[in-house]
# Entry
Amino acid sequence: MFKNSKLKAQKNLVLVTFLIIPTILISLFVIYPLIKLIFLSFTDWDGLNTYNYVGLKNFKKIIFDSPEVWSAFKNNGIYFLFHLLFIPIELFLAFLLDNRVRGCKIFKTITFLPYMINGVAVSCMFIFLYSSQGGVLNSMLQYFHLNKVRWLSDPSIVNYSLTAVSLWRFSGVHIILFLAAFQSLPKDMTEAAVIDGANSFQQFQKIVLPNIKPVVEIVLFLNVRGALQVFDIPYVMTGGGPNHASETFAVQTINTAFQYNNFGMASAMAVVLMIIIIVISIIQQKLFNARER
Amino acid sequence: MQGSDKMEAKIESNKKTSFKTIKKKANGWEFLKVLLFVFIAAIVILPMLITLFASFKTLPQIGSESALKPPTTLNLENYKDVIKSSHVFVGLKNSAILVVVSVVINSLLSTMVAYCLTRFNFKLKKVYLAVFLIGMIIPGTVTEISRFGLMVNLHVYDTLLAPILIYAGADLMQIYIYNQFLSQIPISVDESAMMDGASYFTIYWKIIFPMVLPATATLGILKAVDVLNDMYIPFLYMPGANHKTLSTMLFNCIQDPRTSSVPKLSAAAVLVMIPTLAIYFIFQKFIFSDITAGAVKE
# Structure
């Protein structure tokens, strides 16, 4: 009895000492900004002066009177869709990298390499590749007697060019996550299937896939979250141009806040973004689970 | 006897040929797979190689030569110019401080939280789990709108403390992954230590923390790379010239006409890439062998 109460006191002591700093930091830098963000979204704060409560005006303006916000959101859609289409490919590549291809060690290293490179440096590299004067891609096109493409200055192409950079940089992360999931599967599981004569495809479909479902769900969620807040690739490479054609939701939100000092409006945009992320994640998860059943 | 010998020989040769065809088939498939990955490797490596080549060339050479042509001389002018006209070493120093401090604090705090969440039941546990869920849904980039004012009020704006507080304190994703690792360590490990008279603190520090050390290596490296490569937070919170990191320094190079030409920008990009690539190649063993849950043996 005595020992138990002593243990309990010890437990409480551990809980308090271990959790106090993280709790303070999380409340200060996650919870408080979130509450303040929601609060600010109902105001017209300009970052300096006192603010007025404006009700739903910001949200009304975003939904009914801001075509630029929705065209930015459409750009995010391009990132989302292409990254989503790449997920089956990434799964397949990860499956091969799990000791099913010769030299998988070195290929693993290479696959994850782009993620390790500084995002701004990646942008620098691709600015040169895409450049309309002497850019590498255009000289390649010229070599095959094809017309030059204005990769970063044609409004109808720029988003695809930037999405390609995003795919180049981030696909490796998904592959490594899938690979980690594959490798954490007990080996005897697939071995048993091999003995029973299952081929690679059957192994994959019947044994591997159901067992890595949680990781697939995480990747799907990360994809929504990542694609909807693409920021540094367009911000560094095009600055959202030409003529706002490559602005993403996050670029626009940040510009609204820090360039035009319209913090109230920007906060409302941030809230809208959060709601969209939650809604799409839920829909996606429902679809994913429905397919399984 | 002769007949059976022949028969055996025939069976033997049959075996050989069938074995051969299987092997051949496997080789074809094997070859295709390797080819696929060679193609991917080319896509990954070529942009980097082109950048490396360009960093040694002069501007006229860039215009006239193929980008894939290796430089003929090891011309270091671009590197010298970049180092002279931008804050490479300041960036390197600041990035290094941010990385070390953030990784150490973050791995301690995250394992401590994960320890509490996986080992104890307490009143606020559900609240914590809910907070983590919310925290992971919140898009980081846009919450800076309301976090910005807070940083100014805390008087950490344009100091290294601002990014450290953000990087070290609230990485919910890492806590989540640590949770997974810790919940795989059987509780019997704790119990047997307890029998030997270990306190909860001892169990955490002497048993749990060392057991997840492989995971810490992996997560720490990933965190280090994240911090090194992040442009947004230092860009927002540390605009001062003395507080440039490698990323913001490079972003400045793009905008500065002295360094925005292709060869100079390439040189700057190569310089910025070196630290993360070095970390990657030195520590990749941790990233790949221990990223798996196999690191935590049951």
User: Anything to note?
Assistant: Chain B has 14 helices and no strands. Confidence is low (pLDDT under 50) at residues 15-21, 292-298 of chain B. Chain B touches chain A through 90 residues (CB under 8 Å).
